[in-house]
Amino acid sequence: MKKVIFILALALTGSMTFAQDTPLEISGSADVYYKYDFAKTSNIGTSFASDQNSVSLGMIDIALKKTTGKTSFVGEVAFGPRGQYQSILNGDMNPSNESNSFHIQNLYVTYAATDKLSFTAGYMGTFIGYEVISPLANFHYSTSYLFTNGPFQNAGIKANYAISDKVGLMVGGFNSSWNFYSSDPMKGLNAIGAQLSLTPTEGVSAYLNFMDGSESGTIVDLTATFQLSEKFKLGLNAADWSAPGDSDFGYTGVALYPSVAVNDNFGLGLRAEYFKAKENSAMFGLTADNSVTAFTLSANYKVGGLTIIPEFRLDSAKDDNFYDSVDSLTFDTKSATQASIALVYGF
């Protein structure tokens, strides 16, 4: 099964040698879900899976890849709310808007100048963060506050250089804002991004990410994965973002992702996240000068190309941040609980 995570990983790091032409590769995913919030109203304000007590659509995602000599291209398009108005600044983000029919997730070309140095230009899944838009690449179906409030895509040009087989470096210039394929014409490529990738030993990888721009602000992000045993893996994501020109507006957070592969077809995983909105900073899903601790327990059961993801989630904030019931008019409780089940098919 070709996974979309492989497509997105091209944007993270690495040098590659394209020695020969390859056939056109087609991969993708489709997903549906059911979610129930115990307050009987949509409550936890993170990306996707927002419909209450409903069998609802995620998205269908189709990715194309082709290599010819030293050049390659990746194109990826999504249809459905998870890949459209719930995650991307597309039109007015209104699901009833007929012009909001699809979204290009990735569209970029790569040239491998040498077996160590490559150049990529276009619209790319961001190199920042641990989670991605495609549910096929995430263990949990719901997403973290760090993911929701961080960048999803970056448009620009970058160079990847493999310093050694254990160390890689990426530097690039990107459009002035996250998630837009076009830039403010007066500002252009005014955001600078960089990534240092480390694979010091087998089963351990880490990525230190940085981006700074006049509209995107400044974000420092660390992601890491530790394969501690044949069955047990630990993931880590920590980030701090400050709005442009204001170090007091933004967020900071950290998330841990322990998981165990019970067997080849069944696994259990936990996401434990702490997320804080800075003073006077209202984030998506969290009121200003508030913090939240979120625990998400998920299982992955694989049957052929299908992954079944039952999930239970409990979020607890420092101050009132959620609705106590469907009749609530304002945030009147500090905690929210939801359960969901998702069906994700990859091809």
TrEMBL record:
Is-annotated flag, keyword Heme? no
Q: Where is the signal peptide?
A: 1-19
Q: Which UniProt keywords apply?
A: Signal
InterPro entries according to UniProt: BBP2, Porin_dom_sf
Record keywords: Signal included? yes
Q: Which SUPFAM superfamilies match?
A: Porins
> What's the domain of life for this entry?
Bacteria
From the Swiss-Prot or TrEMBL record, give the protein name: Beta-barrel porin-2, OmpL-like. bbp2
| Species annotation | Flavobacterium palustre
